[in-house]
Structure formats: C-alpha cells, structure tokens
Write a structure and sequence with these properties.
The complex is a heterodimer. By secondary structure, chain A is an alpha+beta fold. Chain A is 57% helix and 10% strand. In chain A, a hairpin with a 3-residue loop joins strand 10 and strand 11. In chain A, helix 12 runs antiparallel to helix 13 and helix 20 runs antiparallel to helix 21. The relative contact order of chain A is 0.11. By secondary structure, chain B is an all-alpha fold. Chain B folds into three domains: 112 residues, Topoisomerase I, Chain A, domain 4, CATH 1.10.132; 111 residues, V-type ATP synthase subunit C fold; 101 residues. In chain B, helix 7 runs antiparallel to helix 13, helix 11 packs antiparallel against helix 12 and helix 12 runs antiparallel to helix 13. The chains are: A alpha+beta, B mainly alpha. At the A-B interface, helix 5 and helix 6 of A face helix 12, helix 13, helix 15 and helix 16 of B.
Chain lengths: 622, 343
C-alpha cells in the first residue's frame, strides 16, 4: 500500500528557528523539500548557511575520540553552556600539545647541536672565548681528504692560516681554520676552492652560555637532551583527561546542534522575518503535527491541498509483505498513483519458489537459516518465508531431503507426472500474465491514461487478443465448430490491428497532429516489426513459465543423483554424501530458483504493469 | 720475486714496437685507409685492425683499436706478475682506463655529440675490469644524470661535490685526473717495496712535478682563474718543487713572470731547452729518466712499466700521424711532430 501524503509548510518567526528545528523538523518524519524551489514568491531568500557549530563540532568530535564513550548520557544542557564546556576542554588539550611541540623542537635542536659539536671533540680550548675574537676570522667545517692533502702540500706554512684538525673519517677532514680579518676574503676563497663546507655553531643555547672545551659542552648538551627526553616521555604518558558526564553531554549536544543546523539548507527566509520549511508527511504524522502546533505560538502549520508535484512514495505493508519491498525497490519505486505491487510480488514469489523447490527438509533449513540471520537484512526474512513455502510444497510433493518415499505425496510426485506439471506451470503462467494485464488496466485508470488502457499491448485490446488466442487453442483442441473458431479469430485480428496501430490511435485520442509521421513506409515498417515482436512476446512469455515445472522436476532429478551416489552396495546410505549433496543442492538450486523466480516477476509480470518511476520518501534528508 | 721471466717477455714485446723506418713508411701514406692497411702488417696491430670492416677505416675507430692493442699488452704483463702487491699497484692502469672512458662520455655530453656512434669505439674497455656501467652512463642526457648514474662508485662523491660548485667540464676533468694521480701515489706508498719503490717513486714523482707545472701553465695561459682557487687544481705531491716555488707560480700574474720562475726551478734547464713547450718537456724528462733506470735495472718491474710507457707513446705517435696524413702534411713534417726516442 502506498501511504497518503500531505504537502505542508512550517512557518514561524526567525528567532524561533532553532527551537522549531529541534522540536519539529528533527523529531517528526518529514520528507523535506528545498523551500526556495517550491515557493514562487519574490521575497524568498536562502537562509544564512554558515554553520556556527562547525569549529565546535570538530573539537567535540576530537574530544569524544579521546574517550571511548558509548555510554548513554541524558543530561540536559543549554547550547551556551555546551559551548563553554567544550571550549574549556579543548583549551586544556591544546595547551598540552603545544607544550609537547615546544619540547620536541627544543630536543631536536639540542640533538642537532650535539651532532655538529661531536666532530670537534679534539678541541680542548675554551670554546666560548672564540666569541670575543675581534681581529681573527675563523670557520669550523669539513673538507674532502684529497683537498686537505692539497692544503697540506701547498699552504701548510702559510703565515696567515692556522688550521686545527679534529677528526678524520673515510672521506672528510673535520677542522677549523683561523686567519686575520684582513686576509679573511682570500683565505675563505682558498678554502671554498678546497670544497670546505662551513658549519655554523652558536655560542648560546636558549640564553645558556656554551663554554668550556668542546667535550665539556657535549657533556652538558647530552645531559640537557636526556632531561628533555624524560620530560617528553612523562608528558606523553600522562593520561588524557577523563571526560566528565557533563562534557560528554555537551559534546553530543554540539554535534547534534551542528546536524540540526544543516537542516537549514532546506528552509528559506520569507518576508524578512519569517522562516519557512516545506515537505511531505504521511497522514499519521500530519495529525500528530497538527495536535502539537495547535497550542504552540512559535510555528504555524499550513497544508497545501493541490500540490503541483507528485508526492514521494512511502510504502506501507504488513510485516509479512514488508521484506519484499526490498525486491520491489530493486526494480523501481512505484509512482504515487500506481498500485503497490509488493503484496502481489510477495505472494507469487513465495508460491512460485515453493513450486520449483519443494522439499520439507531443505525448506526447513532455509526457514531456520533465514530466522537465524533475520537481523542481517530483508533478504534473510524473505528466505525464511520461502522456506515455509518450500516445506508446504514438500508435503504436497512428498519429498524430504531428497527421500521421495519417506512420506506420501499429498498432491502429486512431479517426477511421475511430467506432462501434468509442465502444463500446470503454463496454466499458472497464463493466470499470472492475465493478472498482470488487469493490474495494468487498473493502473491506467488510476493515472488517467486512457490511450494505453484501450490500445496498449497490455491494455484492453491486448487482453482481449490474448484471451482470444487462448480460446482458439481450447476450441481447436476440443474441436468446436468452425463458426466459433472464425468468430474468435476475427476478434483476435481486430484487436491485433488495434495494437499495431496503437501509436497513431493514441495520438488521435490525445488530439495530437501528425499521427503517422512524415514517412509512411518507415511507419509501416516499424509497425510490422513491432507487431511481430509483440506476437512473439505473448508466446515466449507464456512458454517462459515452463521453467516453473522444469525446476520442480530438476529438483527431484538432482536429489535422485545424490541418492544414487550415496547408496552403498549393502543398500544402506553413506550419510556424509547425503549431507554434502543436500548442502550443495540447497545452495545451488536455492540460488538459481530464487533468481529465476525474480526474473519471472520482473520480466513477465512487472514489465506489463509496473512503471516504477516514483521517488522515494526520505526522512530528513541531509 | 724473480723478474727474469717477465724481463725476457718484455724484451720480446719490445721487438714489436715501431722503429723510425716504420714511422717514415706510415707517414708516407696517402689517406687513413692506407695507414690502416699498413698497420695490419705489424704484429702488434694485426689482430685488431684486420677485424675492422673496411668502411670503418675511420680515425676514431682506428684510435680505439690502437687502445685495444695497449690494453692487450698490459694484460699480458699483468697476468705474468704473480706478486699480489705488485698487481695491486699495476691495477692503477685500469683506473686510468675508467677515467679515460668517463672523460670521453663527459666531453660527449658537454658537446652534445651523437653518443651511440662515438661509444662503439671503446666498447672493448667494457669487457675489462670496469666498475662503471658504461651503457647506463651512455644514456645520460645531462651531466647531473651522468653523475647520478655513477652512484655507488668512488666517482660519485667526487664529481657530485665538484659539480655543485662548478659546472665547467674543465673542473670535472681536473678532479678525475687529480683523483687518479693521488690514487696512484697512495698505491705506490702502500704496495711498492725496495728497489721498485725507490725507482718508480722517482719516476712518478718527477712526472707529478711536471704535470703540476704543465697544469699551472695551461691555467695561466688559457684560463683566467682567481689565484686563490688555483691550489685546488694541483696535485698535492711535491718532489723537486718547493712549496714556495709553487706558491710563486700560482701567484704569477704574467706569462713572462711565470716563465722566469719556471726557469729557476729544478727543471729550469729542460724548460729553457724546449722553450716552455710543456708536452715536450714532459716527454723528454720522462723518457730520459725511464731509460736511465731501464739500463740499470735487473731485478725490478721498471722495464715492464717502461714498456707500457713506450707503447702509450707509440699510440700517441700513430694518432698524431693519422692526423698529419689527414691534413696531407709532408712526411718529414709529420715525423717532426712525433716523440721519437733519442737513443
């Protein structure tokens, strides 16, 4: 069933908008529409959408992330309080991470310095004295060994260069050179040409003087680094502040407030001081809203009785049919004015499945499995229904886990009545096709589509044609007099012509011009092809139902193979093979039959009457 | 170690070196192809030249084949030496070949010449003890890529540090040469002993002194470098040159000034006699010192090293000879450009 829908407007003063969103929009199930596109009025504007809670929501989410809180908190806190609480909690965290950052960068700094100084361990003069040099130019650094050899060969006795070597590794000499300020440029040039890489060393580290020999400085720095390291680990290991209930409540409140605010995008500003929300509600919700707004001055509820647009579709079915909505939605959402095909699908699907897969034992397993996993989704709920159907038909066929002789067949054994079961399947198919056509006629009337009602291939002429052909078959088999046969044949041909020229006839009915189109040959060509296709599809669609009988047979066949394999020479059963065979048949055949029935539903039945061009009812879309 | 066997072998190999008559005969050739045909008649070159297809009788191909002859001679000697340390010392020859290849590829990259063509000429070097992947280097499209392709070899740091400071081909080549001579010097200190060490040190240190002067000469004459940076282009090894003399040469501001300082050094007389033609001085001085020790030598490796020197000289001579023939110079003129033994 498709729920009746009302198009409503909620209007109120801007100052009350937050209150209305919190207490109406997010509390009631409303399919919101963008008000700005629904209301034709010059004085309608978008609401200001800059969400004031964005920043706070991020903080709240961070805070909640720290504490794994799934506990329910039902403290009521005002927005203003919540903002204050969150800001405080956040500040605490920020200060801590700031402090940690500072310490870590200082630590890195110190390690870097240790790294640099460590190459000059050999220097045992008081390093800090260098800062007092006024007339001496010097640089610390390193150069490739080959270049150092060049220095040694040519410049060792140069009077204005003093080079102190510190450390030699595989490729480099770490050293410092000193010279007079007056020769600085020349000496710098020489060492640059020797690929000397200078290293800058400071005299102070955060206002602490670096003095003593390089070794002493290194000792001091190492101590400092160790201290910093312990301080960092202490801060890191400190527990995150445990959140109080109040803080959790505040964070949740903020997150909710942010979500609520998002709803504003559906609203609009009208006549400067008023907000307006528009949307669809079901009858039940409408009544509830009406009751609540009657005594509330902050909001006015207005119902529009003749909305221009077709309403969104909310399917309403009882708990037996409900899971089958899932299958219907796979095909499409019915339009608001159509019949909801869910009950039809639910019944036919269940029966057809049972017909094709009748086995008491296997049905029981499907039923139990479906029951076990029913929380996992509608597919499993459908499965348990199908299981019941399978069990019922199992009784009718007298089949339990492939043992055909355990219980008597209440109805028939398919394997022993092949012709009957196949004809029965076709008869069921004919019945279902006729039902589908009748549904189409009803849908056409509901949507005032009289052209399709009269001339469509699933309309009245199609229906009559199909019935005539059936009658013809019956007459021929029963050898009725030729008069009857010719009469029925004439009616059939007349209706076939109506179907063939349905398009121009519909156009004439709608009083459109140019019914045939510009090219008469092209038109005829198309018409003949379509006619042929139509004829063929009546035939194939009917024959298609043979599969229902075929699967009933194949089920018996497959199980007989399992039985054959499991039978030992002594005449007893190998129970492992029986078990395995049943599992395979349930999984394989269950799946195939499920799909085949769905194909029949969608292709042979839905194709005839169900358009599926509705739009779904979505509650409070964000 | 007993050197009598190797010295006998060297004596036999020396018989294959070209003499003056051979050079005169070659210098009378009409074109490069003619030279190639004549070279085929010499034992030392027969195997290498005759394998060349006729259309490839081109100068660069022939030169690469000459190098191959040198390589082959060296390997014959190298394989005949059983002393591990001596082998280590001799292996510097491989380094020189590697550097030769690197310099060739570098100059090709700088000149943007067709790499494929030129490199087929020294493919023969690849088969021997090369640490570098020539195919990879060949494919380098820029100097930086070339250097990156050397990652993992001893040349990478060397060239990378240099290229950061200067993009000149000259600097890169100088760094490679410096590396070779310093390496050779280290090998000499580490692996040579006794008479070998005394004699070869004298020869190689003389060579280094002269190379320093010739590089200084080149820098002063053709490049206008800041005096303070010149030290970094010199070999950090001194033999008969003093620190002061080098410092004076470095700081000389004009060529006459430079000349005067050179004439006052240990090698002054040689330079005076050759009027400062540095290549000739190098050749004369080395030939003289090699020959002196060769005559005295009995139980040492000098005759082998001397043979390699002579062979190298011969290849240089044939190269100049080919150049002369290409320019259609008269025979006497060509002979005058060659470095021929004065004994």
């Amino acid at each position: 069933m498709i729920e009746k829908m009302y198009f409503i407007n909620l209007i109120g003063y801007m100052k009350n908008i937050d209150y209305v969103i919190e207490n109406y929009i997010s509390k009631f199930n409303i399919h919101l529409e963008y008000a700005i596109s629904k209301i034709k009025n010059k004085d309608v504007h978008n609401l200001d959408l800059s969400n004031p809670y964005d920043e706070l929501a991020k903080k709240s989410a961070d805070i909640l992330k720290i504490n794994d809180t799934n506990e329910k908190v039902d403290l009521i806190i005002s927005s203003a309080d919540a903002i204050k609480i969150i800001n405080n909690a956040q500040k605490f965290n920020e200060e801590k991470s700031q402090r940690l950052n500072d310490l870590e960068s200082e630590y890195k700094n110190v390690i870097d310095l240790i790294q640099k100084f460590s190459h000059f361990k050999e220097f045992d003069f008081n390093y800090h004295l260098l800062s007092m040099f006024k007339f001496v130019h010097y640089k610390f650094g390193f150069m490739p060994l080959n270049n150092y050899k060049q220095y040694e060969a040519f410049l060792k006795n140069e009077k204005d260069i003093l080079l102190l070597e510190s450390e030699i590794d595989k490729n480099y000499m770490w050293c410092a050179y000193f010279t007079y300020n007056s020769s600085a440029k020349r000496v710098d040039d020489i060492f640059t040409s020797f690929n000397f890489e200078p290293i800058e060393l400071p005299f102070y580290l955060n206002q602490t003087k670096l003095s003593g020999s390089v070794n002493e400085i290194l000792n001091g720095l190492n101590k400092k680094a160790a201290n910093l390291k312990t301080e960092i680990t202490i801060i890191k290991s400190q527990d995150e502040k445990k959140l109080s209930k109040r803080e959790i409540a505040a964070a949740k409140k903020i997150l909710r407030a942010k979500d609520d605010f998002e709803t504003r995008k559906f609203g609009a500003l009208i006549y400067k001081d008023f907000f307006i929300f528009t949307g669809w509600v079901s009858e039940r919700i409408y009544k509830a809203l009406e009751d609540k707004t009657r005594n509330d001055e902050s909001v006015v509820l207005v119902r529009e009785d003749n909305p221009k647009e077709s309403p969104p579709v909310l399917l309403k079915n009882n708990s037996f049919f409900k899971p089958f909505e899932f299958l219907v939605k796979m095909y499409g959402i019915p339009s608001y004015y159509e019949i909801d095909p869910t009950p039809f699908l639910a019944i036919t699907y269940t029966v057809l499945f049972g017909l094709m897969f009748g086995d008491v034992g296997q049905g029981l397993i499907l039923f139990l499995a479906g029951l076990l996993f029913r929380k996992k989704g509608p597919l499993f709920q459908i499965m348990s229904t199908l299981g019941v159907s399978s069990m019922i038909f199992g009784m009718l066929y007298g089949s339990v886990f492939g043992f055909e002789n355990l219980i008597p067949a209440v109805w028939i054994k398919p394997a022993d009545n092949i012709n009957f079961i196949l004809f029965f399947a076709i008869a069921a198919g004919i019945f279902l096709i006729l039902m589908s056509m009748i549904f189409n006629l009803i849908n056409c009337i509901k949507t005032h589509n009289f052209a399709d009602f009269l001339f469509g291939s699933n309309g009245l002429s199609g229906f009559i044609f199909y019935v005539c052909i059936l009658l013809l078959c019956v007459f021929i088999f029963t050898q009725k007099s030729l008069v009857w046969i010719y009469l029925v044949l004439a009616v059939a041909i007349l209706n076939l012509l109506l179907i063939a020229f349905a398009e121009p006839l519909k156009k004439i009915l709608r009083k459109e011009k140019d019914a045939i189109g510009s090219n008469i040959f092209l038109f005829l060509f198309e018409t003949i092809i379509e006619l042929f296709e139509n004829l063929l599809s009546y035939f194939t669609n009917t024959i298609s139902f043979v599969r229902v009988g075929a699967f009933a047979l194949s089920h018996a066949g497959m199980m007989s193979v399992v039985m054959l394999l499991s039978k030992t020479e002594a005449g007893s059963y190998n129970w492992f093979i029986v078990f395995l065979g049943n599992i395979i048949v349930i999984a394989l055949e269950g799946l195939i039959v499920g799909i085949q029935v769905l194909r029949l539903e969608f292709y042979e039945m839905f194709g005839r009457f169900f358009r599926g061009n509705g739009r779904e009812y979505i509650i409070n879309q964000k | 170690m007993d050197y009598s066997a190797i010295n006998t072998k060297i004596k036999a190999m020396r018989a294959n070196l070209l003499n003056l008559d051979d050079y005169i005969e070659l210098s009378k050739s009409k074109n490069v192809e003619d030279i190639a045909n004549k070279l085929q008649n010499f034992n030392a070159y027969h195997d290498f030249i005759s394998s060349l297809e006729h259309e490839k009788f081109h100068r660069s191909y022939i030169e690469s084949k000459l190098m191959l002859s040198l390589m082959s001679d060296f390997k014959r000697i190298y394989n005949f030496v059983f002393d591990y340390e001596l082998k280590k010392y001799l292996s510097a020859f491989f380094l020189r070949n590697e550097i030769h290849v690197l310099k060739l590829i570098l100059s090709i990259i700088y000149d943007k010449r067709n790499i494929e063509y030129e490199l087929t000429d020294f493919n023969f070097l690849i088969e021997d003890k090369l640490n570098i992947d020539v195919n990879k280097l060949k494919s380098s499209s820029s100097v930086q890529e070339f250097i990156n392709n050397l990652a993992g070899t001893q040349f990478f740091d060397l060239l990378n540090d240099t290229y950061k400071q200067s993009k000149r081909l000259f600097d890169l080549e100088m760094k490679l040469d410096l590396y070779y001579y310093i390496h050779l010097h280290n090998l000499q200190k580490k692996y040579l002993h006794g008479e070998n060490k005394i004699i070869l040190s004298k020869i190689k240190d003389t060579e280094i002194d002269l190379i320093n002067i010739s590089w200084l000469y080149r820098i002063k004459k053709y490049y206008n470098f800041d005096n303070t940076t010149i030290f970094s282009y010199l070999l950090p090894i001194k033999y008969k040159l003093s620190e002061n003399e080098i410092s004076l040469l470095v700081n000389a501001n004009t060529m006459p000034e430079f000349e005067k300082i050179v004439y006052n050094t240990y090698y002054g007389d040689l330079f005076k006699a050759e009027k400062l033609k540095v290549e000739h001085v190098l050749y004369k001085a080395l030939s003289r010192i090699y020959y002196k020790f060769y005559l005295q030598s009995k139980d040492n490796i000098v005759s082998a090293v001397y043979y390699i020197y002579l062979k190298q000289l011969e290849i240089n001579n044939i190269t100049s000879l080919i150049e002369g023939v290409r320019y259609n110079l008269p025979s006497e003129k060509i002979i005058s450009y060659l470095y021929l033994k004065e004994v």
